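cron nightly-structures :: item 1 of 1
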Amino acid sequence: MDENFGLKARPYLADPSFYNASEKTQWQRFEREIERMNEESGHSTIYKVLYMGRHGQGTHNVGQGFYGFPEWKDHWAKLDGNGTITWADAHLTDLGAAQALRVNRFWKREVAQQHISLPQTYYTSPLHRCLETAKLTFSSLYPSRQAFTPTIKELLRETLGVHTCDRRSNRTSIHKDFPYYVFEPGFSEEDEMWDANVRETDSETDERMKTLLDDIFTSDKNTFISLTSHSGAISSMLRVVGHREFQLVTGSVIPVVVRADFD
């Protein structure tokens, strides 16, 4: 992520028709190429660029690191905390907040130097660590806090069940902490998806992510979309779109070009 999102220097088919293409940055030419692909693809194919961002370090990441994964999975993840820290609907640590601000500085630099366009739509998981990461990463890129209004998507959350870090707060609490965020239609007051006794399987997560992406591709007309989510959810989305396996560390982003074909 530290260098131009890893975008490689290369020519594009859109270059000859792009005014002063030789004077444009690689990202400006890439964005024009995506526009060309959509213009020429017809109504049955859509291309979108998804910026998949993992939240900064949360208190649950500290807990898992301290106890080790086997003990964490079998015991501690089922509790709200250990008496010293709380990880139910885990919040960001100081390091996690710093990681989100580092991504914020990266976006500012890319906008200034590469003239990259900001995402046209922002979606975020309803879990607190993602809500806070999105705020720290993007809100200061706009002239006022009220101008940054991401949509909270229930299906964008982490693997469901058992682990209390993945149990969301109620809608009233979320609205109190993030009053400018928009709830998607039908967002319930209480968490109706998390089950204390049943952990979601990878195949079930994949099905949920496919439903989410189908919804975004059919209902969102924008092309450049930010998704603030989790390691498990992002790994699942990458599987669903046929991308190679890629593990994101906390506070990192991967942009992915996705083609969707419709009957």
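cron nightly-structures :: done
The longest helix spans residues 94-114.
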